[in-house]
Specification:
Order of helices and strands of chain B: HHEEHHHHHHHHHHHHHHHHHHHHHHHHH
Strand order of the largest sheet of chain A: 1-2
Number of domains of chain A: 1
Number of strands of chain B: 2
Radius of gyration of chain B: 29 Å
Largest sheet of chain A: 2 strands, antiparallel
Largest interface: A-B, 51 and 38 residues
Helix content of chain B: over 70%
Oligomer: heterodimer
Radius of gyration of chain A: 22 Å
Strand content of chain B: under 5%
Helix content of chain A: over 70%
Shape of chain B: globular
Structural class of chain B: mainly alpha
Order of helices and strands of chain A: HHHEEHHHHHHHHHHHHHHHHH
Number of helices of chain A: 20
Shape of chain A: globular
Strand order of the largest sheet of chain B: 1-2
Distance between the termini of chain B: 71 Å
Number of strands of chain A: 2
Number of domains of chain B: 3
Largest sheet of chain B: 2 strands, antiparallel
Structural class of chain A: mainly alpha
């Protein structure tokens, strides 16, 4: 009795909802400590733990999903963390990205002679940061997640120790990342200054119910937060780091950046703009539309003149980010579910495509010129066939998931009467198709055969590319059930 | 058990996926057995569904099973769903039943082909598409199957694509069908525009409750009929079907006789509530196109020398009967004839395949003759098929053709007359084919001028037969002698040695022969209770069928006249080709052999003035359209090479970009402030 009345009130914690973060973070930290205690290195330990953690998170999302679907979204830890359907959906996408990165990294790291322990530790921690972002109900928690995610990735990019491009990419990414984080943090501070809270739900309720006489501070906050978040997902004009970082980074890390980091970044954007700042949609919708339009055009157009496949895919990832942002700016149920669908398909597209780049890259991870792909269909017909599916998916050819994804975001732009944006997006999709067809043409062309030494395709690459291709095809032929899931996964803010 | 309907297309789909994944890694017969097992599984599931449906009450026999949302795009929503009703299940029964037999047959027929596995992969994909076409609960799903079967047909016609003629035939089929597909698509757009749905049952409901303009329904029906003309090979879009015989014979049997070509007829029957709402002149047009095609094709079949060409034109002709039935509002009769035709025409094609197989690829009727004793099973079953298609009672073809003709009389006696002339021609050309193939003197031994030598031999034979008074014995005797000769000849060199086919090929023949005999039992005209098929199909025809206003004495007279025409056809055929009492040149006119020069005229037009017009379009495409496209490409490349300069690798440039972006955003947001 005595203690009870004097005890400090501890916030309520819903442990099961925190399970993904805990599993990822704890396995990362445990991995680091255990392996330092071990006398002899166990080669399978790090990838094994990483893979297990990813699979665990993926599987645990099923009962969590069912529970949220039945009982509704929850918030806890003083409402600073929320778990809704979108959290679980995006967490499972992050888990998928983690799994495919882990699978593909093992043969890569041993081929390149890179110490693997640090790689997996950083990957797990980065994934934990991403999951935190997907469940953030507070701007501070959101920022925390972003930093956990990003700092680990900065180091991951530099992990190819003997490659100067890797170091260069890392330092560029880090400098620009720090630069944009400052914008984001300052934006958060200004929003806090304007509304007096960092809790997303409270901000939303405040903005919805009260009319600010002077909203300049809030507006500047919007602008600066958009800069910071735009950098994370690489939309124009905050994209410039992407080609350099993608080109220099070890290819498995690029998979993580393209799939995992992008998912987490859009999770943050979805929570902040369409949800929290919903009542100011008229103010931020146009800049978002402009940024998305510029991104699709810039990414598609510049990719055309690239000769390095990794750079092509980097520019195409900028275009993809633009497409996804089109869905975000529409700020309605259909648009948001289209964003989630796009993210889902893109996770597989990016995993599969970069998995093939990992293989073709060869020893030294430098063989990424378009010429390296010449005659691939002759040497590895099955791999070329899978890559064909993935590239057609990226191009958004009908009967692939990529088509449905693009259709969803473009039709959301039409719904919100942004016809010009929809037109620009369609045109850019056509331009981007050329880029993917160029890679296809190279693969199926005859010349240059035998110039490159035989490529070794590990089992992991087969698994990742064929699973990705299957997903791309299945979602293309029967999108209905998957669209249904993304509709159920549209985020909702609760608590506060 | 009806809810197992999803299993029906799943089996061939699994078969297809398995085969495509296995590729060339399995040895020859295994792929065939896998595909056949998949079809058999599908057939068994159809049987289960069928039994389940029989146990239901008549009014509960139409059910939609929605698997999931397929395309959710705003207001436009299409489900993957199956419409299980007596019509679709009846179609499934013979598609999978005949399909299984033909798969089995193909194991023997395709033996030794280097692309054995590819063949069965296509065959399973075809079966899947066909079942989707039939089971789809909405027009789009039907269209998906429609295009799927079209693609498979193309792939299988040009299966031996290394031969240029086969590849050309495939392309011809594909392009001709595009015209039909255009009609189907226009009809689909119109239906969606006017009804706001593509689901059959929803369309029918709207049709019942809302007033839809008669011009609209008429136009929809006409457009659907254009689609049906393409797939079901009606004049003038029939052109592709005779050429489609370039494919392996089991393909001709399955796709170009029993199943795919009936899908146009199926489509029209499926939308019968729309047909009823359309103007009568449109259904009249359908009936006339049908009966016209029937007569036209039958007249051509008379003078064909390729065993498969005869059957191809015969198929066009029989499809004409079905379309005639649809135009007369006799949906049951159309389905009835579709079923019996599936049995006997598949039988005839497979029989022809067996002959071709036994004759080492020879397809010219003039080089056959006297094969009866060498291929007893093939000959026996082929003869059953002949009697069935000719319309000899009690074989199945008699009943179904007779029903169609009765409805034709009901609509217009003129239709009936054309129909009866066609029946006579049918009996004649089929008799000709059977005699030339299985009776008379063997002509395959003569290496040189086949036709003339055959004539001479036949003349002698006929004389002998006449003297003996028993044609059969005489032929047998000659056959026996020739068989010995043939064996000797083979020993001597590489002469043709006719032989009976393996059991995988003869078993389907026997099964189909039995079905061709008894198939008529499902719809006997004697009383209302023997018309089982009509009652069974009622849930799908919505009592939209035309009712016969004919007395039973009229019906008896009509049937008798039909019989007379059949007997006359067979009689003339026998006198001409077996007894050779009539000069065959009277019938085998060159113009008939050349299909009334229609095909060649179309080809000449397309090759002459047509191709000039196409060239003009191509020039326009190349210069204007491509010019615009290439220009855009150049602009994109120029822009890109300018834009990429921003990517100079310097962090300070990138930071500047971020800064400029930030300033831009700040300016925007500051203009939005309320100060």
């Amino acid at each position: 009795m005595f203690f009870a009345s004097n005890s400090v009130p501890t916030p309520e914690i819903v442990w099961w909802a925190l399970l993904p973060v805990i599993v990822l973070a704890v396995s990362g930290v445990l991995l680091l400590t255990i392996s330092s205690l071990l006398k002899k290195e166990i080669s399978w330990l790090a990838p094994g733990i990483s893979l297990t953690a990813g699979i665990f998170v993926l599987l645990s999302s099923i009962p969590m999903w069912n529970r949220i679907q039945n009982d509704g979204p929850i918030s806890f830890l003083n409402n600073s963390v929320g778990t809704d359907s979108s959290t679980i959906f995006l967490t499972s996408l992050i888990a998928i990205a983690l799994i495919s990165t882990s699978i593909l990294a093992r043969p890569y790291l041993s081929r390149e002679g890179i110490p693997d322990l640090e790689f997996y530790v950083l990957l797990l921690l980065s994934a934990a940061g991403g999951v935190v972002m997907a469940g953030a109900n507070d701007l501070i928690v959101l920022f925390l997640g972003i930093e956990i995610l990003s700092i680990a990735v900065y180091v991951l990019v530099a992990l190819h120790l003997r490659k100067i491009e890797s170091q260069e990419a890392s330092i560029k990414y880090f400098l620009l990342g720090a630069f944009s984080s400052a914008f984001l943090l300052y934006g958060i501070a200004l929003v806090y200054g304007a509304v007096g809270t960092t809790n997303l739900v409270e901000i939303r309720n405040f903005l919805a119910t009260s009319l600010l006489i002077e909203d300049g501070m809030l507006m500047i906050g919007f602008a600066l937060m958009l800069v910071g978040l735009g950098f994370k997902v690489a939309v124009f004009p905050f994209h410039a780091w992407t080609p350099d970082a993608y080109q220099g980074a070890p290819t498995p890390v690029v998979i993580w950046m393209a799939a995992g980091v992008k998912v987490a970044g859009f999770a943050a954007i979805l929570r902040v703009f369409p949800l929290t700042f919903a009542s100011y949609v008229n103010d931020w919708q146009i800049p978002l539309a402009v940024l998305s339009g510029l991104s699709v055009v810039f990414g598609s157009v510049v990719a055309v003149v690239q000769t390095n496949v990794k750079r092509m895919l980097a520019y195409s990832s900028i275009a993809h980010a633009g497409f996804i942002l089109i869905g975000v700016q529409s700020s309605n149920m259909d648009g948001t579910s289209a964003v989630l669908f796009y993210l889902g398909v893109y996770t597989f597209l990016a995993s599969g495509s970069f998995a093939i780049a990992t293989v073709v890259g060869g020893e030294g991870d430098s063989n990424h010129d378009l010429d390296a792909y010449k005659g691939l269909a002759k040497r590895k017909p099955a791999l070329a066939a899978l890559f064909t599916i993935l590239l057609l998916g990226q191009a958004g050819i009908p009967f692939t998931g990529g088509f449905i994804a693009k259709l969803g975001v473009i039709s959301s732009a039409v719904d919100t009467k942004y016809y010009f944006l929809a037109g620009v997006a369609m045109l850019s999709a056509a331009i981007a198709a050329y880029v993917y067809l160029r890679i296809l043409m190279a693969m199926y062309s005859d010349n240059n055969e035998g110039k490159i030494e035989d490529i070794h395709v590990s089992k992991g690459v087969w698994v990742v590319t064929s699973l990705s291709s299957i997903v791309v095809i299945v979602t293309g032929f029967i999108p209905g059930p998957f669209v249904e899931i993304t509709r159920d996964a549209v985020p909702i803010l609760v608590g506060g | 058990m009806v809810d197992l309907v999803w299993l029906i297309p799943t089996f061939p789909l699994l078969g297809f996926l398995t085969l495509i994944c296995l590729g060339k890694s399995v040895r020859e017969p295994i792929a065939g057995w896998l595909a056949t097992t998949a079809m058999a599984g599908s057939f068994l599931s159809v049987l289960l569904v069928f039994i389940g449906m029989l146990l239901e009450k008549n009014e509960n026999r139409q059910k939609v099973f929605t698997l999931f949302d397929w395309i959710p795009a705003g207001d436009f929503k299409v489900d993957i769903g199956f419409l299980a009703d007596p019509l679709s299940i009846t179609m499934c029964l013979f598609i999978t039943g005949v399909g299984t037999l033909i798969h089995l047959y193909s194991i023997g027929y395709m033996h030794g082909d280097s692309d054995f596995n590819r063949f069965f992969t296509y065959l399973n994909l075809f079966a899947f598409s066909m079942l989707v076409l039939v089971l789809g609960d909405n027009l789009l799903l039907t269209f998906l199957g429609w295009e799927g079967v079209g693609a498979c047909s193309y792939l299988l016609i040009s299966f031996w694509f290394r031969d240029r003629a086969n590849a050309t035939a495939g392309k011809k089929a594909f392009i001709t069908n595009r015209v039909g597909d255009w009609g189907f698509m226009v009809a689909m757009f119109l239906i969606f525009f006017n009804f706001g749905s593509l689901q059959y049952l929803e369309i029918f409901n709207i049709l019942e409750s809302n007033q839809i303009a008669k011009t609209t329904t008429t136009f929809i029906v006409l457009m659907l009929f254009v689609g049906a003309m393409g797939k079901s090979a009606q004049f003038p879009l029939y052109l592709w079907l005779p050429d489609a015989m370039a494919g392996p014979t089991p393909v001709s049997a399955l796709i170009h006789a029993a199943t795919m070509v009936t899908s146009g007829v199926y489509l029209l029957i499926r939308v019968n509530p729309i047909m009823v709402e359309a103007s009568t002149w449109s259904t009249g047009l359908i009936a006339w196109v049908g009966v016209g095609t029937a007569l036209f094709a039958a007249s051509i079949a008379v003078a064909q020398t390729d065993i498969k060409k005869v059957l191809a034109y015969s198929t066009v002709s029989q499809l004409g009967y079905m379309v005639l039935a649809v135009g007369c509002g006799a949906y049951t009769a159309a389905i009835f004839h579709m079923i019996t035709h599936a049995f006997f025409k598949a039988l005839l094609f497979l029989g022809a395949g067996s002959v071709i197989h036994g004759m080492d690829g020879e397809q010219d009727l003039r080089r056959y003759g006297g094969l009866r004793s060498l291929m007893p099973i093939t000959a026996g079953t082929f003869i059953i098929g002949w009697l069935a298609i000719a319309g000899v009672p009690p074989f199945s073809g008699f009943w179904s053709k007779d029903e169609i003709l009765a409805f034709a009389w009901n609509k217009s006696p003129l239709l009936w007359i054309v129909g009866i002339v066609t029946a006579l021609l049918t009996a004649f050309y089929m008799t000709r084919q059977v005699v030339l193939t299985f009776f008379g003197k063997p002509r395959y031994l003569d290496a040189g001028d086949a036709g003339d030598a055959g004539d001479a031999g036949d003349a002698v034979d006929a004389g002998d037969a006449g003297d003996a008074g028993d044609a059969g014995d005489a032929v047998d005797a000659v056959d026996a002698v020739d068989a010995v000769d043939a064996v000797d000849a083979v020993d001597a060199g590489d002469e043709i040695k006719p032989h009976e086919s393996p059991w995988t090929m003869t078993l389907p023949l026997v099964a189909l022969a039995v079905l061709s005999v008894v198939g008529g039992l499902i719809q006997l005209p004697f009383s209302s209770s023997t018309k089982w098929l009509e009652h069974w199909l009622e849930p799908a025809t919505f009592h939209n069928e035309t009712h016969l206003h004919l007395s039973s004495s009229t019906l008896w007279v009509l049937a008798l006249l039909a019989l007379v025409s059949v007997v006359a056809g067979i009689g003339i055929g026998l006198t001409t080709y077996l007894k050779e009492k009539i000069d065959k040149q009277i019938f085998e006119k060159p113009i008939l052999h050349n299909a009334w020069n229609f095909d060649s005229t179309v080809s000449r037009f397309m090759g002459g003035p047509g191709s000039k017009a196409f060239a003009a379009v191509a020039r326009f495409d190349k210069q204007v359209i491509d010019g615009a496209v290439d220009g855009t490409g150049q602009i994109v490349k120029k822009t890109a090479s300018i834009l990429r300069r921003t990517q100079n690798g310097l962090v300070r440039t990138y930071a500047l970009g971020i800064g400029i972006g930030a300033i831009g955003l700040l300016i925007w947001f500051l203009t939005r402030t309320t100060i």
